[in-house]
Design a protein that fits this description.
With 203 residues, the chain is mainly α. It contains 8 helices and no strands. It is globular.
Length: 203
């Protein structure tokens, strides 16, 4: 009988130990579960991982895109402006160059009568157009003749100096006066040169 009682007592102790261990394990499981829920983004545990960072990157990206878009737009506008100006300049040079070719064809003896050649006039005019695309062929021819007629007595008056004056927006008369001639002298020199060119075209 005593043996039976002892056996039941042992079973009872084992049962109590197992029950106690089960309670401890269950408590630990609940503790880990609560922590995991909070970090996973439960309502009381703050925003889900990555939400704040994503929002920051979005704002930064928006701000950066705004600046970069504006920068690209400004650069594009400026580039287009330069491109348009370059095209207009090239178009004007081409038109003036073609007009010079027409004039030389229409007056084949003009260059020889002015003591030069058509090729020299053409190449010289092309070089001058690179600096001043608004220069007319008649102005260039007049500048070459004035330089030849006046340069000996007036070293300052050269074809290049006259062309530079025209490129700055001055007239031939104003340029000649700036180079040392009086108003009357400039007028007389222009008249002589105009007559020479007219005679050269008629010949």
């Amino acid at each position: 009988m005593q043996k039976t009682i002892k056996m039941f007592a042992k079973f009872g102790l084992v049962f109590l130990l197992m029950a106690g261990l089960q309670v401890v394990v269950s408590a630990q499981g609940r503790g880990h579960g609560g922590g995991g829920g909070s970090s996973a983004g439960s309502p009381g545990g703050g925003p889900p991982s990555g939400v704040g960072v994503g929002r920051g990157i979005g704002n930064s990206s928006d701000s950066s895109n705004g600046r970069s878009d504006t920068g690209r737009g400004t650069a594009s506008d400026r580039s287009n402006g330069r491109s348009d100006a370059g095209l207009d300049r090239a178009r004007l040079q081409q038109q003036n160059s073609q007009q010079a070719d027409h004039e030389l064809r229409d007056h084949p003896g003009m260059a020889a009568n002015l003591h030069t050649t058509a090729n020299d006039l053409r190449s010289g005019y092309q070089a001058a157009l690179a600096t001043n695309p608004n220069l007319k062929f008649g102005q260039f021819v007049a500048a070459t003749r004035l330089g030849a007629n006046l340069g000996a007595k007036n070293p300052n008056i050269t074809t290049s100096a006259i062309l530079a004056g025209l490129a700055s927006g001055k007239s031939i008369g104003q340029t000649l006066q700036n180079l040392g001639l009086s108003k009357e002298q400039a007028k007389d020199a222009q008249k002589q040169t105009d007559n020479e060119i007219k005679d050269a075209k008629r010949s």
